[in-house]
Amino acid sequence: MTTRRQFFMGSAAALAGSALPRVARADTPIYPYAELEQRIARKDFRGMTKDVLPTPSMVVDIDLFEKNIKTMADYAKKAPIFLRPHVKVHKSVDVAKRQMAAGAIGITAATIAESELMSRGGITGVLWTKQPGSRNNLLRAIALTKKDPTFMFVVDDMRVADWVEEAAGAAKVKARVAASVYAGLTRQGIANGQPALELAQKLHKSKNIQFEGFMAYSGYASHTKGFAARRKKSQEDLLGVNETMLLAKKAGLPVNIVSGGSTGTYNMDKEFGLTELECGSYVFMDSIYKQVGGQSNDNEYTDFESSLSVLVTVDSKHHPRQVSTDYGNKALAKPTDTVKGMPWLEVSTQGAEYGLLTWKDGGGEIKVGDRVEIYCSNLDMSTNCYDRYYIAKGNDIVDVWPIMGRSGAAQR
Ligand SMILES: Cc1ncc(COP(=O)(O)O)c(C=O)c1O
Prior knowledge:
Blueprint: H1 4-9, H2 36-41, E1 57-61, H3 62-78, E2 82-83, H4 93-101, E3 107-109, H5 112-120, E4 126-128, H6 135-147, E5 152-155, H7 158-171, E6 175-180, H8 194-205, E7 209-216, H9 219-222, H10 227-250, E8 257-260, E9 276-277, H11 287-290, E10 308-319, E11 322-325, E12 338-339, E13 346-349, E14 355-358, E15 371-375, H12 379-382, E16 388-393, E17 396-402
Bound molecules: pyridoxal-5'-phosphate.
């Protein structure tokens, strides 16, 4: 009989021919699952491979990830343009630290919670791109300003400028604020021209505010298909922003930053007036972004690699040309997801915890126990559903990075 010790210390080879699901290498050790969390806590990754991970789980290919970080950093240095990458796509201090180490001047965050988490993790130069519309957010933005004088946020409304002035005065701090201006997305941004100039002047005159410049995010441009069309859209969306910037400079205002841009438009927006880029998705790339097309290929955007996938297990098969998986609605499975190395598979779901992979006649067969890696459609949404990244070098897990500040979490 196999003892407990022999079971833990054994290998798939030792159990060859056993009923265990297939693993990538026959010498994969039988992993002590009961210890998985303790081993992660003490960063002991010996013997931890993709084969032993629970699924569905997010796996980052560290080589591709580092290549993406370098590609963007090299571009920014060469352009030159500052990089303040958006963290919404990854929500990870570990990723942000690597972006900073590659030369970023800070990070951009979508929520005050993300801003606080990044700052607590030692990241400076955080730009929060929403104005504080609630008392909770206002007081937190001021508290963060007090704790970290490099923190900046935006305002697109005269009343909010007054709130910030009052709250900053009460806390005896000088809040660093940029005016958020319209750049094609109706979700935020004061109208360019005179209204934006008046807001900028108000911010500049406010005793407890340091006016920093402008924030202008052109969200539709980022996903416009085809390089030439995307360039045209970005240029159109940033025309008004440029007009505002020139008006502000003419009026004698200091314009330290014009922040915006995206993974889709990173290599065009300097020309259209941005001084810094807020690109986020480039670190991982999702399946939808891959389709926007690049300068050299209108059908596939190849500037950055797909470095993140969701590892999924095939757990039932009873019908032709389909299998069930554990990648269902709760794991945010979408029909626009793609399967790594198996383009013939189509992704859909069969319920909260049940996923579906289908294929047409002639597609490769997959079996119960197989594992596939899925490229998500929209990583902003998907990373929000998982609590960690398993960092892989080939098949080996070499680190685990937490995903923080997810919606619904206490710190949101
Ligand atoms: C304010 C803001 N800036 C920049 C980005 C760029 O992100 P990405 O590079 O992922 O397109 C986003 C994405 O949603 C955003 O909301």
